[in-house]
Task: structure prediction
Amino acid sequence: MQRRGALFGMPGGSGSRKMAAGDIGELLVPHMPTIRVPRSGDRVYKNECAFSYDSPNSEGGLYVCMNTFLAFGREHVERHFRKTGQSVYMHLKRHVREKVRGASGGALPKRRNSKIFLDLDTDDDLNSDDYEYEDEAKLVIFPDHYEIALPNIEELPALVTIACDAVLSSKSPYRKQDPDTWDNELPVSKYANNLTQLDNGVRIPPSGWKCARCDLRENLWLNLTDGSVLCGKWFFDSSGGNGHALEHYRDTGYPLAVKLGTITPDGADVYSFQEEEPVLDPQLAKHLAHFGIDMLHMHGTENGLRDNDIKPRVSEWEVIQESGTKLKPMYGPGYTGLKNLGNSCYLSSVMQAIFSIPEFQRAYVGNLPRIFDYSPLDPTQDFNTQMTKLGHGLLSGQYSKPPVKSELIEQVMKEEHKSQQNGISPRMFKAFVSKSHPEFSSNRQQDAQEFFLHLVNLVERNRIGSENPSDVFRFLVEERIQCCQTRKVRYTERVDYLMQLPVAMEAAANKDELIAYELMRREAEANRRPLPELVRAKIPFSACLQAFSEPENVADFWSSALQAKSAGVKTSRFASFPEYLVVQIKKFTFGLDWVPKKFDVSIDMPDLLDISHLRARGLQPGEEELPDISPPIVIPDDSKDRLMNQLIDPSDIDESSVMQLAEMGFPLEACRKAVYFTGNMGAEVAFNWIIVHMEEPDFAEPLTMPGYGGAASAGASIFGTGLDNQPPEEIVAIITSMGFQRHQAVQALRATNNNLERALDWIFSHPEFEEDGDFVIEMENNANANIISEAKPEGPRVKDGSGMYELFAFISHMGTSTMSGHYVCHIKKEGRWVIYNDHKVCASERPPKDLGYMYFYRRIPS
Result:
């Protein structure tokens, strides 16, 4: 066939030639089976590349695959073609040109521009009076880059025309993230307006909730009829509860419940048991007030507080954003901002801090070619791909270019306008990391600290082989619990990723000023006069550190020495110091009326921090340990009559319950023991056993019973994530039975914390490890040798070292609570502080280090 690439240029060009309909049809015939019409539920990406932040506004435009509907920039479309063999793409390009000037020198009058058909945001830097837009679409056939201009109804086959029209008219896959859309999709409950509420005197406290039937403290629901607090449904992702809220409905018929922890001025998560779906309750404020919850006084939304809320907080907003000074914009690698998607500043601030850490830069951006080459067929749904994309976008400087000098603007515009990027939009990243999370997937403001921990969890679950950048945050906490009656102690260790410092308000250095201010404020409010200038409490950092190290009471402490509940106190120390220490100031609390409150304080956070004195010391001479006896297992009432009086044979363990728990990420041996010791009563009861025993040293050791010849199986380590840990043979056998090689199964399980489902996904997305079989087998043999020579399971990997740190970043919050307000990040780069305020990145003149919420310290080498 004669080469036709040159024949499909821009229509109207001097070199263009008219093609017969038969020629175009002949060109498309071999590719017709691969061209699809988008169906309901298909996500069509036409605004953003899956691997970069290229869009139709970019110089090279955007290529949309006509089979998968994924979009790729010029640098990445060839990769998708080589990997999938998909040849037909729709190329989308928005051209920006300077408007023709009128006789008086001004732009010609505006008129409707029919040349714009792409649903895109115009660049914020462009003045619509000076520039005009023209959208262009064409089909491109790889590998020879044949181009067919669109629209071309007469010459294209009908199927291709329909597919092209459907792609161009499709809505954004992120429409549910857009403000004011997702909430309105919920139906109004038919019980809301006439809901009966019992006058039983129940008042719900603002914290400290637990299920009335099983003592669980998460996924709790408040029944809006009688005020019962009960746990929700149990899920296989290790969240949820025992379904006691649903059981309560079946017993009483009380239909509506609200999830505690989701209540804001805009609403809450309400579920109707009778209607079996989430619903809206227009009377929610009244229904909550019945139980003492003042929902309507939880103020504000991001950048939209009411006037009476802003006045006491003006100083804070101005100081943190450095509004009173003219800040110099920063451009180039590492100085790229993130556009606000509507209450997404918590995500932006955390990610800016994360990608200022070299270990995260190396793990993702440093491995960019490998991660992109071996990404799954849908890279928009792969955590490592999206992390790498975001890291490259922030660090490359490709999307943070300085403005063109004024004397060159006219010349550049005449040739081709190159749009000035003003930050990148993390829409695809946010959609992935927040999916299935009820809070982060909403458009409500969130807690930056909670998102940081959520992100660390995702990094842990999706680590790239042996590389886990979140190791830099991980440290061990030694908890010393003492029974107040017997004076006996227990030492345990747990993993943590941040240090939470209480605000020692009683240690304020300006108490007299605070008392005087409070008197003037109350007098001004009573007489309707302007409020006095805010006086902020000045708290010494040393007082906060002292409060952290002081003993605290243990709620519901069960003393193994007394075999009963007793009073207990707990102190915490560092069993290891992390390479990067994240410090959270606990500024947020709830009042008795449920209104969130924020401690508006100034803390003299040090640039150099020494916490060496908080190093754990272990059991001391003269201390007597509490007996190693576990508290009794709480069995639901409806299951007590099914409890066996004697232990079952290990060979009769219900493997289906074991696998349900293992798929949640718990070590397999722990799951077997949980099912065994709860008498095969099901996954829910076994899950309760795991929660009670998961901090015990032998939690994940193999099940050993006298008379059964030792271990039930050779199992995973206590945490199941160490490089040298041998994956459980049961799961290895399942994978090899599917036709995969043993070394692939072992490597996949190690990379996914022994999770069967994620291990299978890992194998499909890492075909390169099939080629490295000999190396992996050698590693496996070494691992086996290590297990044989050392039976003691390994703990989590920590990077212990000195307790001396230097401040390099902090995140500040403005507003009355974590459910409202705005976040800003300051990072020290190249010897100076830089402020990251959404898309704006500027040199900081007065970094407000005393007003931060989260602080990031790096270890000083000793």
Notes: The CA atoms of residues 224 and 257 lie 5 Å apart.
